[in-house]
From TrEMBL:
This is Cytochrome c domain-containing protein. Residues 1-19 form the signal peptide. Keywords: Heme, Iron, Metal-binding, Signal. It comes from the Bacteria. Residues 18-121 form the Cytochrome c domain.
């Protein structure tokens, strides 16, 4: 009888230990992890074009601002090569800051665009 009680007691202790262990695991993974900026798979079609899509309100349609249509790879790669794309987006001196009248792109989006330009602005 005593042995049976001890067994029950230790079983309860073990269960208790398990429960608190799980509680700690939940707490440890409870914080939302900050997603790192992944610049390792940057492509024109998969990364650059979707980012620049937000500019198409002005740089799209039949009369794009400054004659620059972000939907055209040929035009985007030309602006990448002559420095205007990053110059305007980084708000560098001598360039008209883009997006005009809006907030700068996120650091992560800028890092991806820089990565693409540094790779030679490939049509991939
Ligand atoms: C509200 C309209 C508007 C938005 C949004 C906008 N632009 Fe512009 N953009 C212009 C205008 C207008 C010009 C012409 C220069 C000026 O007036 O500042 C221009 C000029 C440029 C130029 C220089 C072109 C040249 O030939 O001199 C680049 C590059 C550019 N924009 C890129 C972008 C990118 C990339 C985005 C999106 C992140 C963007 N713009 C968003 C209106 C806009």
């Amino acid at each position: 009888m005593v042995i049976k009680l001890l067994t029950l007691a230790s079983a309860a202790l073990l269960l208790g230990a398990c429960a608190s262990q799980n509680g700690e695991d939940l707490l440890a993974s409870g914080g939302v992890p900050t997603p790192a900026c992944d610049t390792s798979h940057v492509t024109y079609a998969g990364t650059v074009a979707p980012i620049l899509q937000q500019c198409s309100g002005c740089h799209g349609g039949s009369q794009p601002s400054a004659g620059f249509a972000v939907g055209s790879y040929a035009q985007v790669s030309t602006k990448a090569a002559n420095g205007q794309l990053l110059g305007t987006l980084n708000h560098d001196a001598g360039y008209s800051p883009m997006p005009k009248g809006g907030a700068k792109l996120s650091d992560c989006d800028l890092a991806k665009l820089r990565q693409w330009v540094a790779a030679g602005a490939p049509n991939n």
